[in-house]
Amino acid sequence: MTQRRRYLTTPIYYPSGEPHIGHAYTTILADALARFDRQNGVDVFFLTGTDEHGQKMQDEAARRGMAPMDLCDLMSAKFVAAWERLGISHDRFIRTTEPQHKDVVQAFLTRLWDRGEIYEGKYTGWYCVHEERYWTEKDLGPNQTCPDCKRPVEYVEEKNYFFRMGRLQQSLVKHIESNPDWIVPAVRRNEVLGFLRQPLGDLSISRPISRLSWGIPLPFDPEHVAYVWVDALVNYLTASGAIDPHAPVGRQGFEDVTGSRWPADLHVMGKDILTTHAVYWPTLLMGVGLPLPRQIFAHGWWVVGEAKMSKSLGNVIDPLALREQFGTDAVRWFLLREMPTGSDASYTPDRFLARYDELANVLGNLASRLIAMIDKYRGGVVPAGRATHLDARIAEAFASVRTAMAGYHVHEALAAAMELARDANGWVESRQPWAQAKSPATATDLDETLATLARTLVALAALFQPVAPAKMADLCSRLGLERVPTLAEAETLGLAGQTVRKDAPLFPRVEAAET
Ligand code: MSP
């Protein structure tokens, strides 16, 4: 049987500022999907990285009096470090300033050019430097401001190269309509279809170097650099290994992607960049004749009040500061449990604490009390015992988690897992193992209780592993296991005969964490 493979991506982030919880959310979400898949035996390739060209980086470097490349090195390293601290298990971190990427972008543009998909034209109109976007008069906000970031726009008149995107409109609509799950959730798919009801223009894919020099030169006109979004989107292709830009034209991989990771199985992103991924990117791929990504998933925003949390609005939360106080896995849990994938959510310290308490008081507490009882009543060795009513609940929880994860409803999967932990705690109360321990007549009942709870705890370790990988590895080591079992293993694994180890609480009380 061939092993299932999956190529999963996050956006590549602008390293013009520090990573914030918006970036962290997307990356942790994709990480949990990657870990869940790996746990199910899938051969995952998980890509993230930084988007280092463009006006924003050029301007920020100028503001700091730095060379753009030095700024990229400095800031990209901050993303690498943040992802390490947040337990991200990416297989590749791509930077758009890598020579290999530059060569693939140029090969991509050459291919479009050779196929007649690009023409030279002139752009006259409004441009937002911050968003790196052209706007039409009717898009503008009051006093000629950008409709997205509300900053003043500039009137520009310049030679541009255009990609014939408009003529691919109908093919794209057809693709979206005949593949209902291509863009999820459905609300986002409808937004894209709504956008495509208007005529789709051609896409400007270049910027004159007189205005912007920090970019990849067009292979057919070195006086222009590639529009940063074209450069950025191609990263998914570069990392897939499908294109060999150094091979002769005609044998670079555009005709046949066999053996590479292309097409991507899933692009994960926030809803702010859905159009670029669901309209520009697929039409560009059609333009070069490559297969389209298999699926696009756009999640909602972390908001503060009504506003999206963003660096430019100055209302961002630092995930690394939260991590200092509560630990990596608690941050991961909060973000994934709190936001219904697809809608918006807001961060408040109270919500964070409430979610942390769930981890400590429900899951952490179950682990501590069970290990303590096995230690006290059975000398630290897990007894054997028959299946009980709780085993049926384990099976139900597995089914709910699998269904929820298949639809990327990660918050529901986590809710189902936590519900199992809650039920197990309730079951402890109803079984009263401390009473069962009092008489030899109920020794078998006590074995049954402890054995069932041990099976539940292993199941929980497997279910929580994608969100809390470090804590679940720790829990499994306390249960005498070398690693967190896979879902399939956890379904059948008994712990009978295993020696458990008592230790400090998995999720310390917050007061304790603060001191
Ligand atoms: N560089 C482009 C992406 C190119 S991908 C080929 C870019 N970068 S970004 O740094 O602005 O990151 C945008 C992404 O960060 C969003 O799509 C989302 O994944 C994440 N988020 C940034 N702010 C966010 C929130 N407030 N809430 C949730 N996610 C957000 O766009």
Proportion of strand residues: 5-15%
What is the count of structural domains?
A: 2
Straight-line distance between termini: 53 Å
User: Biggest sheet, open or closed, and with what strands and sense?
Assistant: 6 strands, parallel
Low-confidence stretches: none
- SS-based structural class? alpha/beta
Mean pLDDT: 94
**Small molecules in complex:** 5'-O-[(L-methionyl)-sulphamoyl]adenosine
Question: Which labels suit this protein?
Answer:
single chain, 515 residues, alpha/beta, Rossmann fold, Isoleucyl-tRNA Synthetase, Domain 1, six-stranded parallel beta sheet, four-stranded antiparallel beta sheet, 16 strands, 48% helix, 15% strand, elongated, binds 5'-O-[(L-methionyl)-sulphamoyl]adenosine
